[in-house]
Write a structure and sequence with these properties.
The protein is an all-alpha fold. The chain is built from 3 helices and no strands.
Length: 87
């Protein structure tokens, strides 16, 4: 798990970390290993800063959804191309 602080801009989290690197960095990986972990932390941090006013953090939530979508598409492309995946 990374200890860096979440970015201030939601757009900094749209591109997921390379999931192969994320899984390789773990002692053991599970189905819960998430290359979009920073985007998730940033959205929760936004909620904390804005007294849990969801409307104030919609950009962060969208960045997380975009990150997850990109990650899943990356995995699909790897499977279709026959490249090995960690899980």
């Amino acid at each position: 798990m990374s200890t860096s602080s979440p970015p201030n801009s939601p757009q900094e989290n749209v591109k997921p970390a390379d999931y192969k690197d994320v899984f390789a960095a773990r002692q053991s990986y599970t189905q819960h290993t998430d290359p979009c972990e920073q985007a998730a932390k940033a959205s929760l941090s936004c909620m904390d800063r804005n007294n849990y006013d969801r409307d104030s953090c919609l950009d962060f939530f969208q960045a997380y959804r975009d990150c997850k979508k990109a990650w899943l598409e990356q995995r699909r492309q790897d499977r279709r191309a026959g490249r090995p995946t960690p899980i």
